[in-house]
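**User:** Hello, beginner here. Are you able to go through the protein record under this note? It all follows right here:
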Amino acid sequence: MRYIEPHAHMVSRTTDDYQAMLTAGCAAVCEPAFWAGFDRGTPEAFYNYFLQLTEYEPARAAKFGLPHYTWLCINPKEAEDPILAREVISFIPDFIDKPNVLGIGEIGLNKNSRNELKVLEWHIELAAELDQLILVHTPHLEDKLKGTKLILDALKAHPKIKPDRVIIDHVEEHTVDIVLDRGFWAGMTLYPESKCTPARAIDILENYGTEKIWMNSACDWGISVPLAVPRTALEAKARGYNRRWIDKVIFQNPVNFMKQCKKFKKPDA
C-alpha cells in the first residue's frame, strides 16, 4: 500500500524508523514543529530547531528516498511565556520560504490558558499575513472539547482564514463533528495509549465519512508507533474496505490538503 505520514515528529525517531516507514509504503513524511521532550528556554534554541527541521531532517529522510516537509511555530506546550513566544514568532518568516516548509503548525492550545490563547492568535495572524496553511494541535483528555471550541472560535474570528486551509489535529469522537461541521479539515492521531486506536479511527470514519479527514502517527517522544497509519489501514481492510477507500484516507486526502501549498509535490507512489 502507499500512504503519506502527515504528522510525525521524526527528530525523536531513529533512522531505522525511516527505513521501516519506507518499507511499509510511506511516500512522504510531514513534521510539524513540536516540544523537544523538555522546555526550550531561549529563542536561539528554537532557531536551531527550525534549522534542524528545514536542513538536517530533510537531508536525513532523503537518504532513504523519502520527501520530508515541515511546519513551523512555537508549540502550545511552550507558549506560556509570551515574551519568548513573540521573539520566536518574529523569526519564523526567515524560514517560511525554505523548500520543505508547508505552513504554520502545530499551533493551538495545551492547557487552554490565556497566554496560550494569545500566542495562538499571534500565529493565526502570521499565517494570514503570509498566506500559509495551518496545522492545529488540540488539547488532551478533558480539556479537548473546550480547547477545540476556543481554537475554532479564534480561527473563525480572523476574516482572512479559510477553513479548508486549516487542519485541526488530534480529533476524537466528541470533537470531530464540530470541526467538520465548521468547514475545517480533521486529523486523527493514532496512539496505542491515548488519542485514537486503529479501531476507534475506523469507527470514526464509518460514522463521519472520509471527506476532509486524515490519519497520522505523530510518533513523538512518548509511547507511539511510527507505523500506526499502515496498521490502521490493515484494520480497515479486515473490516472489508477496498483498496480505493483506504487509499483515499491514507494517501489522497493528505495530498489534497497539502497540495494547497505549491511546495508540496504529489509523490509518484
Q: What stands out?
A: The beta strands are 3-5, 26-32, 68-72, 101-108, 133-137, 166-168, 185-189, 213-216. The first helix runs from residue 15 to 24. The chain has one domain: 3-258. The chain has a mean pLDDT of 96.
